[in-house]
Design goal:
362 residues, alpha+beta, Immunoglobulin-like, TIM Barrel, 2 domains, 17-stranded mixed beta sheet, 5-stranded antiparallel beta sheet, 7 helices, 22 strands
Length: 362
């Protein structure tokens, strides 16, 4: 990012000068943040025990290949099109997959999808001990029974049958008031839901993004723009109990296409860990050069109001960019104001920040 100076010392981003060296992809897509590990999680997957097309263990091998930390198998309670070939046994997918998950170092969470018409819609329940108790005639009985197991319940793809049918209604208010609704999908597969994002902010619900995968996953290693939609969970450690605590406390962000979606209190420290700036250097008496390194699997998209209008800048995933800042005579520091357009802290609002750099002595 390039900065344009003013006498007062406030600098605004202007543009990219040089794309520099690209780094090899590391084992992790995103760095940890202070106090927490950043775990890559998919809490919405299906197998042949409902309407998926793979055996439960395949989901574990996919997670290993795609470098996930946590998955939940959440087969439908009410919809089992292969019932004649695979008898109903709601806990069986977890039993089959858990030994492989343990061997491969994947945290597997037992869950299910409560599948009703919209409204009220579809809901995933995680951390269950007895899935069969969710097989009830009345919808709210199923939600209640998930909660009596200390389950974590979130509303899936609320506009699946259209925005009009996916509105917040009395049934959601009942669940919310009773403490039975804990989160929402703000992204599912290839779709982002701004309204769900706003509701999560207003109602302090956890934000989730998931693949809702049914077919086999043919993905090669993730790229910034092509990957399954996942939830980043900021957990004290890599354990099922720590993941659950993080979800309950809303310590999440959503990685959807080339966007991260979440609360500023988590996106800001994540951004600060993703971006590293080398020690500034003088290229001549009037120009300060900065090398900015992106330590994450997302292209960072900046915007700032330059003197001639909005200016954009992209720093690709796991790459570095060199920028130059014009200096005033005897100027000893510069401040850069920026917005990270693809770190969404609200619908259509990116993460804003400011960085100050000292000018080295010539």
């Amino acid at each position: 990012m390039t900065a344009k100076r003013t006498r007062g010392g406030v600098f605004l981003l202007l543009g990219l000068i040089v794309l520099d060296v690209a780094f090899s992809f590391p084992e992790r897509y995103f760095p940890n943040i202070p106090g927490y590990q950043t775990l890559v999680c998919d809490f919405h997957t299906h197998t042949v025990f409902s309407d998926g097309l793979v055996w439960p263990t395949v989901r574990i091998h996919e997670a290993v290949r795609e470098k996930l930390d946590v998955i939940a198998i959440t087969d439908h309670i009410e919809y089992q099109p292969y019932r004649q070939d695979i008898p109903t046994n709601h806990g069986r997918p977890y039993q089959i997959a858990q030994p492989v998950a343990q061997e491969k170092g994947i945290l597997l969470i037992q869950g299910a999808e409560i599948t009703r018409d919209t409204p009220p819609g579809h809901y995933n329940a995680l951390f269950l001990t007895d899935i069969a108790r969710l097989e009830t005639e009345l919808f709210l009985d199923a939600i209640r029974n998930a909660n009596t197991q200390q389950g974590f319940v979130f509303w899936n793809h609320h506009t699946w049958h259209g925005a009009e049918r996916g509105q917040w209604e009395d049934v959601q208010t009942q669940m919310y008031d009773k403490g039975w609704l804990h989160g929402m999908e703000v992204a599912n597969s290839g779709e982002y839901y701004p309204q769900a994002h706003q509701w999560c902010l207003e109602k302090k619900l956890a934000m989730l993004g998931n693949s809702d995968i049914h077919d086999p996953s043919y993905f090669s290693p993730f790229s910034a723009h092509q990957h399954r939609t996942v939830t980043l969970v900021f957990a004290a450690e890599k354990s099922v109990s720590a993941v659950k605590q993080a979800l309950v406390e809303g310590r999440t962000a959503v990685w959807y296409k080339n966007q991260l979606i979440g609360r500023k209190e988590f996106l800001l420290p994540l951004f600060e860990e993703c971006v590293k700036v080398d020690e500034p250097r003088l290229t001549d008496k009037n120009t300060l050069a900065l090398m900015i390194r992106n330590n994450a699997m997302i292209d960072l998209e900046f915007e700032a109001a330059g003197l001639n209008g909005p200016i954009t800048l992209t720093v690709p995933a796991f790459s570095a960019a060199t920028t130059e800042i014009p200096l005033a005579p005897q100027q000893d520091s510069v401040t850069v104001n920026y917005e990270v357009k693809n770190f969404l802290v609200q619908p259509e609002q990116g993460l804003t920040g400011q960085a100050t750099f000292s000018v080295p002595l010539p």
